[in-house]
Amino acid sequence: MKVCAGWGAEIEWSRGTIVETNKAAEGLVRLTVDIGELAKGYTKGGQYVQMKVGDSKPAFYAIASAPSPERPIELLLKNQGSTAEILCDSKPGDEVDVSPVMGNGFPLERAAPEQAPHLFIFATGTGISPIKALIESGELQADKRTSVRLYYGTFHPDSTAYRELFTEWEKSGVKVVNVYSGFGDGYVQNVFEKDGGVSDGEQTAVILCGQKEMAEAITAMVEKEGVKKDFILTNF
């Protein structure tokens, strides 16, 4: 079946099967979905799928698991909106409609370690999903960079997904800076600025995923410090 969905693109829907659902944080659900052969189209962190259930409105979800043609994909959903609420209430074995894997992912090939030894990553809320995929896939090449720092903004610790993974992420070379707006930290851009921002713009790359206001503020800050536009990476 083909329908027009999302940004006017024609989507050929396939059937996926819910494998597992569990609470990821306050108001967030981790969803594992078997999408069968479609998983072969998932090759880079930052790609996404559209999903719907029956006649519900299609919704876009970035994939949180590392690319693998053999395994189900993981999604992080905010329990808000008709389709998300249906998916969050789903049970193993339930069927869903899923699009092919979409998008080009984060263009990290533009900012290899020898070109950008310093890498800053900024994520808010469920924007951590594709960042998790980048970290766990090794695409960041953190071990080949001088420094990799992730600023992850949420309201408070209980609303922060993947906290149990931060120790492993740090071992892989990604320093995690938690920013809790509900605890008076301000926002990601505020903490980044307080930390001194960018010290070597020409050798720094930035990855952005989250609120538009955050992305715009960080972009303005790092461009002022000499970070090249090609080194400011998004997945859209």
Automatic annotation (TrEMBL):
InterPro entries for this protein: FAD-bd_FR_type, FNR_nucleotide-bd, OxRdtase_FAD/NAD-bd, Riboflavin_synthase-like_b-brl
SUPFAM superfamilies listed in its UniProt record: Ferredoxin reductase-like, C-terminal NADP-linked domain, Riboflavin synthase domain-like
Gene3D superfamilies per the UniProt record, alphabetical: Nucleotide-binding domain of ferredoxin-NADP reductase (FNR) module (3.40.50.80), Translation factors (2.40.30.10)
Domain of life: Eukaryota
UniProt domain FAD-binding FR-type: residue ranges: 11-108
Pfam family, one: NAD_binding_1
Protein name: FAD-binding FR-type domain-containing protein
